[in-house]
Amino acid sequence: MTKTFTMELAGRTLRVDVGRVAAQANGAAFIQYGETTVLSTATASEKPREGIDFFPLSVEFEEKLYSVGKIPGGFNKREGKASENSVLTARVIDRPMRPLFPKDYRNDVTLNNMVMSVDPEARPELVAMLGAAISTCISDIPFDGPCAMTQVGMVDGEFIINPSQAQWDNGDLKLTVASTAQKVIMIEAGANEIPEDKMIEAIYKAHDVNQTIIAFINRMVAEVGKPKHSYTSCAIPEEMFAEMRKIVTPEEMEEAVFTDQKQVREENIRQVTEKFEEAFADKEDWLEVLGEAVYQYQKKTVRKMILKDHKRPDGRRIDQIRPLSAEVDLIPRVHGSAMFTRGQTQICDVVTLAPLSEVQKVDGLDENITVKRYMHHYNFPSYSVGETKPSRGPGRREIGHGALAERALIPVLPSTEEFPYAIRAVSETFESNGSTSMASTCASCMALMAAGVPIKKMVAGISCGLVTGETDDDYIVLTDIQGLEDFFGDMDFKVTGTKDGITAIQMDIKIHGLTRPIVEEAIRRTREARFFIMDECMSKAISAPRESVGKYAPKIIQIQIDPAKIGDVVGQRGKTINEIIERTGVKIDITDEGNVSVCGTDKEKMDEAVEMIKIITTDFEQGQIFTGKVVSIKEFGAFIEFAPGKEGMVHISKISKERIEHVEDVLTLGDVVKVVCLGKDKMGRISFSIKDVK
């Protein structure tokens, strides 16, 4: 039996059909918002997965190209691996949903969101976020929802709730906020230097909209929601914790974790674990969950130290940043490089510049193929955390971290008119102990400046953590969290920006939401920390972009030609432009508007190519002087090529001031000569003279 629910949301109708399709899933919602259609399903395994100490949740965002009337490219003509946008969307859905599942739940859960049609006025990512929440809430899967998501854009200073794709792409704000009925549970933002107060206003405008959606979901749950099923709890037995506290006292555990050296802490915990293994040698069921039990013991110890004693594991103050250092130009020959170190987190960033023809083309659910002129890639090798693991390319975490640092710097990049380059920044993680994405932002900013990219302002990033108690007003916000505080804390609140405003936010939490005072304090703390990092560290390594690109970077000369002359430059089947490239070794890009970019490393050859293009596109006038090569000799004269594909004729009478019998008496094939234009002859050919050159 199909049940249909509708609500008006930001000027469009949100329609949800339950029971119409996918009846064998634990929960399914067939959703239309405008004409965007998404099928969202939630399924769970019947039994917990054995041998794991985490909740196995998978979130998928499937982009079907039929949804925008496209046939996939390539030989297979079908969708392949998930696009970067799919991965990032899945992560945004995962982050608010995951904390609302029971912490001791070990059944596999998959939230699948399949995009079936796309209306440019209603972004499919938003519909999938709502669909994931709805399908889970009405299912029998244990879930402490509902939750809801709203997106906010900003055009001409005005907030737009759930903007169209065009408003999202071209506005000054891209904000996604997830909420429960009481609190904000997830924030993701890209912004064009939005002031902190304005950002907080936008966050809570979205939070208010979320409350209307939650009421709508509650109505669906009341009518068609399934009773939540029971499950096998994987919680650690309390009697086990009691025995562990006898073997290693809380004071001894505190001493084991209280150090600023990650390797020392890990060795201490290894020794503690050996004590437990020896003591529990005859209790096989306890040994099976010992790893999780030790983790929980550490977590309780660290949280108590921070919340009650105001002591951090490495001895820092609550608002203190770890030791900072920065340097540029550590890698020779590359176009730009920088290294940023914060405690035991260290990132080396390398920038590469290229002509605009090397921008990345992205074929997705937008109406048109889009391009990325700035690409930021993040790598996280196993050695950065002292582990051994083969490299298998970037995973979802690496893609997400790279996208966050990329989003942080886009607002300060120069336009293509100011700086006609494609730009790639690669962040290599040398060492990791908390918030490498924020270190990547700082390192990338410095590397761009070192490469001579004229960014408008300096950008820095920092992360704040959180430890909460039993009540909403019992909490501590931590500036610059290290790995241990991230693992055992309740929040990872990352903010990047300039001194004038925020450029990106990504907030992950492990609890059921944040109160407004926590959000406001975290944003204030990150602002103070960004200023400190820029003033006390980054600006001392490099304070402004270099005035020009480096020795090994390609140089680009731009000229404007009449668009009607583009065909003359390209030539038949590309013959003319390819000959210019072959002669000079440069790269040439031409836009439909007649903007020509000549790229190379040899200034003399670049100037030569530019001169050829100018000659080809110039209307010839009497008296112009050119340098050309003799390419053909006839009885009546010689043909001179003065630019690729462009020739003029010198009559035998115009070769020498003295009378000659044969052209070969003065000229041979391949001679380079100066000629003056006499206009066009009766046949419309350009006529030259050698003897009249002054």
From TrEMBL:
EC number: 2.7.7.8
Keyword Cell inner membrane (UniProt): no
CDD domains attached to this UniProt entry: KH-I_PNPase, RNase_PH_PNPase_1, RNase_PH_PNPase_2, S1_PNPase
Domain KIX: 223-302
PROSITE patterns: KH_TYPE_1, KIX, S1
Key words, A-Z: Cytoplasm, Magnesium, Metal-binding, Nucleotidyltransferase, RNA-binding, Transferase
Class of enzymatic activity (EC top level): transferase
Annotated residues for binding of Mg(2+): D486, D492
Entry function: Involved in mRNA degradation. Catalyzes the phosphorolysis of single-stranded polyribonucleotides processively in the 3'- to 5'-direction.
HAMAP family associated with the record: PNPase (MF_01595)
Name of the protein: Polyribonucleotide nucleotidyltransferase
Lineage: Bacteria, Bacillati, Bacillota, Clostridia, Lachnospirales
